[in-house]
């Protein structure tokens, strides 16, 4: 497999992506370090000034390792990017990108973004016109959720929790779930429920952000917050004896897949 996640003891996560490029390391090195080449594929406007790195917007960074044409590593705000180049026996390069960050559940968004950038990098090295961004970025994101094992549910005693990065903004997710039909004291809209968990009345509703309703011995809470990229972060929590972890994991996956297909 060319992609993997590593969870570190300090709570940070590293995403590693490996690609073979049919170009020598020296040529790939120039594409990684020279602003004129970076502009063709990197997702920001990069400038190097000594060990300082500027990205055209937001926080800058610093070079932490620079060993031409084998290793380049630099920070981007709190994140760290490490580019390793190994020559292969055919005169090409094995490129390994390792991106280290704090938001594990955002890893699929990072992976989908870098996947697209690396395709553009190869086109640039080949001398081809860069391809347009994939029209099915939502589907690509969901593919990486599965590849990286990000669809898991956690259970702590009687509480089940599912956290899932979505590919659409909170307002669109809310409409998709029929959230505008939610009213305190009334049954929740069906998309917020699963057949195995009896749904009681809505106890709290904040349009575009939160819906909570009672269940036998507990509650279900859907919360939409700020996520990685352009989509919302869903946190789904169910408490009580009818928590049903498999049902909520499946429901969150269904919602994510449905949203990925929406235009």
UniProtKB/TrEMBL annotation:
InterPro entries reported in the protein's UniProt record: ASHA1/2-like_C (IPR013538), START-like_dom_sf (IPR023393)
Pfam families: AHSA1
Domain of life: Bacteria
Coiled coil: none
Domain Activator of Hsp90 ATPase homologue 1/2-like C-terminal positions: 23-123
Signal peptide region: none
Family in the record: Belongs to the AHA1 family.
Protein name per its UniProtKB record: Activator of Hsp90 ATPase homologue 1/2-like C-terminal domain-containing protein
Source organism: Nonomuraea coxensis DSM 45129
